[in-house]
Amino acid sequence: MNAVTARTLLSPAPLGGDGIGFLGASAFSVLHRAIRLNFLRGSDLHAILGVTLRKGDDLFRRMTRFEPQQQALATTFPSHDFTRRTYWRCENWWPFGGPIPWATLPWRLRICPSCMRSCYHSMLFQMPGILRCPWHGDTLIECCPRCDRAFSMDLGRQTELGRCDCGHDLVDYVATAEGVGGPPARMSEAIGTYLCWAKANRKENWLIAPEGWDGFAWSALHHLCGRLPPNLNRVQGDEGREPEGDMVVEAIHLERSLKFGSPRLSPNSGLESFQPSMAALPVAWYTPLAAVEHQLKKMLGELARSGTVDKDQLSQATVCLPTYLCGRRVFFQTECLHRVVLRTMAKLGSTLSAASESRMDCAKEFYALINRHSLGRHLLERCIRQMLLRGFADGVRVVLGRRLPSLYASARWKPVVRYPWLLLNLPAGHVPSAQINWTLQRGTD
Ligand SMILES: [Zn+2]
Ligand SMILES: [Zn+2]
User: Which helix (H) or strand (E) holds 5?
Assistant: First the structure.
């Protein structure tokens, strides 16, 4: 049966086209509701709703990240308010400036169990900092409340979309037919406030994600979001969220009296290189770098005295530490940095150099943002320095551990890999600041 015949036979249009109680619903939500109301199977989807899915496609990912599918759904249900795709595009909800780091981010469906009874889902639930449903107060979940399995939205495999393999059905048919997500006035208030806040936040806060996939991305993002507007906070229970688990949080503030004449990081320092190299840094960076080395040597000395490592091997290994002071420059071998830190830093470093035609649009935008603020470049330089220092402290332990495997025998010597999530706050007319959230990765690569 082709699409046209199917649509003609199904008269009137498929159920699920009314969106009165579905304010702010995602494209996934609209499709999910239509599937349940019309009892559709995988093969019916294209014929009746115009949406194409491949075998094994996760419906949630398809509908939230890919515009052609959203467009197809909007064509099927053209006359209703919720098809205004403002609510469907993730970019309209995202609270940070810069591209959404899809390649870095686990993207899983998060639901409010009360909203899901009527197949209601909003992109709001997917956003950093939103941990509870703003109108029901339910904690948002990513796994089946009965068996703890992650939700799967694969129409080819499941008998009913939204019913877990354990038999638990998140969806209630009557609630879905009624099509009301939650109390309309509170939904409208919360969504309006959030979108307004996110738009303002995007203008001043730019996110730099690490250059590698991070399973702990959401811990960093939730924390970077800081305080949400009061009427969302009412049910968020925020009050300065504590960092989760092993995440390290570094706040970067510029000193009130900046020395404008002090040596600055050159645009061609070597830190803008995505490959390991010898970087030439301002001489003022020597003291903090040497402090890291000093700390490290002290620790290694204690290990040598306790007999954990061989003294001669140790002195051989530490000869290769990467910092050298030479004239008015500090030379630093970036080989000791983890590749994700190196590449993330290079992304920042390349912003210091003059704008070039080859820049991607988002890099151009970031360049403009940094240069528009009188202290933008100072802040960027401080961020690079901070990233280098912790990247060095972490990275050199991994490198030395490789050269001296006996180090691993000591419980005190625990090499770590952390990925940096950087948020730069550049409010016009105010002193800018930044925050780096370092997520602890498993293993040492
Ligand atoms: Zn809810
Ligand atoms: Zn289950």
Answer: helix 3-9
Return the ligand number nearest the Cα of 112.
1
| 180's tokens | 């009301």
Alpha carbon dihedral 263, 338, 244, 294, in 10-degree steps, equals -60
- Taking CA 231 as the corner, what is the angle to CA 228 and CA 237, rounded to the nearest 5 degrees? 65
How many angstroms separate the alpha carbon of residue 117 from the centre of ligand 2?
A: 15
- Domains of the chain: which residue ranges? 3-184, 248-441
For ligand 1, the distance from its centroid to the CA atom of residue 115, given in whole angstroms, is 4
Write the DSSP assignment of 203-256 as a string of letters. Answer: HHEEEE--SS--TTHHHHHHHHT-PPPHHHHHHH--SSPPPPTT-EEEEEE--S
Instruction: Burial-class residue 216 by CB neighbours within 10 Å (0-12, 13-18, 19+).
Output: buried
CA of 143 to the centre of ligand 2 (A): 8
Residue 150, strand partner residues: 143
Does residue 445 carry a pLDDT above 60?
no
Model pLDDT for residues 262-307, shown as the tens digit of each residue: 558 888 899 988 999 999 999 989 999 999 999 988 888 888 888 7
Distance 162 CA to ligand 2 centre (A): 10
**Which ligand is the nearest neighbour of the Cα of 168?**
2
